[in-house]
Write a structure and sequence with these properties.
By secondary structure, the chain is mainly α. About 70% of the residues lie in helices and about 0% in strands. α4 packs parallel to α7 and α5 packs antiparallel against α7.
Length: about 230
């Protein structure tokens, strides 16, 4: 839903954009902390010094606000991926840079991890209604696919994987580290977000991805034909 007509004065438009951004920021915290069912629109309105009616004006409904929060959360990491300048790097260094970017983002955005977990509990039923859902995948696939293709073309990376395989590998490590931090610490007495181990885990991720991509190079085609 468009928040303001196209011909509104610029200052009013800026105010509307600021209000909408503030609502999204507070709503992100509420939904991440309390889940979809537990979050209250009245509480979000109170924290943003606005009204429930105004929230519905901008987002249509509680579900509309929640979907907008999910869209903004995914758009944040996609924006970083699309801005990553790796064309001047060799494929191995470029792949490590992308993995490290994901590592840094997920560590600094725990609300994103919680939102993803919450939406998976709902079987992505809300995210599937997003009109921009398909566009939220493109930057990750495009950037990662380009790096992978360069590495495969020069014989560095194995050819039996695609961009989504590698995206899953990177995401699995980064999401687990943040999402399972508390249970992991309770069972094993190790904090996965301990600053003293941060660089160790960051390097581990890059090593894992590159070791997998460079393993069996030249042998995958023979194995698939056997």
């Amino acid at each position: 839903m468009s928040a303001e007509p196209a011909d509104v004065p610029p200052e009013r438009q800026r105010d509307a954009e600021r209000t909408r951004a503030e609502i999204l920021a507070i709503a992100t915290e509420e939904f991440a902390d309390r889940g979809y069912a537990g979050a209250r629109v009245d509480e979000i309105a109170a924290r943003t010094r606005t009204t429930k009616r105004m929230l519905y004006y901008y987002f249509g409904s509680k579900q509309g606000l929640y979907v907008a929060v999910l869209e903004a959360a995914y758009a944040g990491i996609r924006s970083l991926e699309s801005q990553l300048d790796v064309d001047h790097l060799d494929p191995a260094r470029a792949m490590r840079a992308l993995a490290e970017l994901t590592f840094d983002h997920h560590e600094s955005h725990p609300a994103f991890i919680r939102l993803v977990g919450i939406e998976n509990i709902h079987h992505a039923e809300h995210l599937r209604t997003s009109p921009i859902r398909e566009g939220l995948a493109a930057p990750a696939v495009d950037v990662l696919g380009g790096i992978l293709a360069r590495g495969q073309a020069c014989g560095l990376f194995r050819t039996d994987v695609d961009a989504l395989d590698v995206h899953m590998l990177i995401s699995a490590f980064c999401v687990f580290r943040t999402a399972n931090r508390h249970t992991f610490q309770a069972i094993f007495d190790r904090d996965l977000l301990d600053a003293g181990r941060r660089e160790h885990y960051r390097r581990m991720l890059g090593d894992l991805v590159l070791e997998y991509l460079t393993a069996l190079v030249g042998q995958t085609e023979a194995v698939s034909r056997a």
